[in-house]
UniProtKB/TrEMBL annotation:
InterPro entries: F-box-assoc_dom_typ3, F-box-assoc_interact_dom, F-box-like_dom_sf, F-box_dom, SCF_F-box_component
UniProt xrefs under Pfam families: F-box-like, FBA_3
SMART domains (alphabetical): FBOX
Organism listed in the record: Digitaria exilis
Protein name in UniProt: F-box domain-containing protein
Domain F-box: 20-60
Domain of life, source organism: Eukaryota
Lineage summary: Eukaryota, Viridiplantae, Streptophyta, Embryophyta, Tracheophyta
Amino acid sequence: MEASAAAEKKPQLTGPLGGLPWDITIDILGRLPAKSVFRCRGVCKAWRDITIDPGFLAARSHCWPADVVLYKYEYRTVASDDGGNDTVAVDVALDLLPVSSDEETRPRRLIRYANRHAWFLLVASSNGVLLFRKEEGLYLLCNPVTRQWAELPRLPPRPPHLKHNKAMVDAECAFYLHSNSGEYRVLCRRNSSIKETTWWILAAGAAKPRRIDMGAAAEVVAKVAPCLRTAVAMHVALDGRLHWPPHQAAAVAGETEMVVFDVSLETFHLMAGPPTTTAALTKVFDMDGRLVAADFGKEEHIDLWFLEDYKNRRWELRHRVEVPLMDDAIMQQVWTQGGTARPTLEPRSLLSVAAAGDGEAGNIMLGNYRWLVVYNVKTKTTKTVDSVVKLWGKDVLVSRHVFKENLEKHACFTTAEQCSVDLSSFHFQ
């Protein structure tokens, strides 16, 4: 009875489409691009009610494919002080490439902003919201689909005698959506003194930051969590927990550990990672609700470890993806620089390596600007994304960030004009 009553309250279309069941209606509308969905809201009240319904927004978010974020640097020639010309990067553009891309898929523009001295640094992405850092202590959230912004509360000012101490810096360690409250949060670590570390939660819509007590044991684990600005691989949100890529366990060679943050308890713990000897070259991602680790430690192939049993921490090597030889034109350029036919990765180079999954289609995107492939776990086939590889040498970089469109208008977000920060350099596509 209660389920039937709830179903009756769902908004329904009228006219020729009025007889469509709710699930079919949201399935059809959920496959439309964001701009088309926004246009539907202007058709009539029934269409608007459906496209703002929480059930529709959740269903679309679940089925909408993930995109890998690309950096595109745009240059301009300007007059130099000595009378000549200089080429400078004036803009940074963020482009999106679907995880399920084929050979000819072209990246699409998401946002462009000025690359000036006071430029904004993209730090992380979570549930369709980007986290930017402008300067120490100033963090901004942006939903580029709804074009909304939010400024996070700032940490308390430092004591005067520590203000200019370079060792005393704030580090943002995690960015995530807290599902129970609907808040976007940043977990920050502050070195308050040489011996003291404090932890803070910066939540969108909150008036001030909230300090949390990690406890001595959890704080030791927490120190392994890297700063988002310098991390070569991002954490993954799954089942109310954030998971960081594995690191080598101190006890036994070949055993790894992963740092985990419980967003409800707000504490850290360790869990067993995949059994690999190249943990420093491993990235993790979510594949249809399952944790997957991509090990880039071998030159010829990438190992894909799946966490088959979360409770018992049982990992299984399910797939081995061959790393393709590079395009002839790119290979020629690499050889002139002393490189090889297959790129050798170092831990730091993972900063520009993609590892992302599209659970519904069974596709996984792996690689960088020299070689980029889409591997399908269902057919066990691999295809190259030549449209990106052909951009090699044209100031396009594959990033570590993954983006999924979010059509929800957040209550605590505002327009760019209402923000206290000048956002006139940002241009949406």
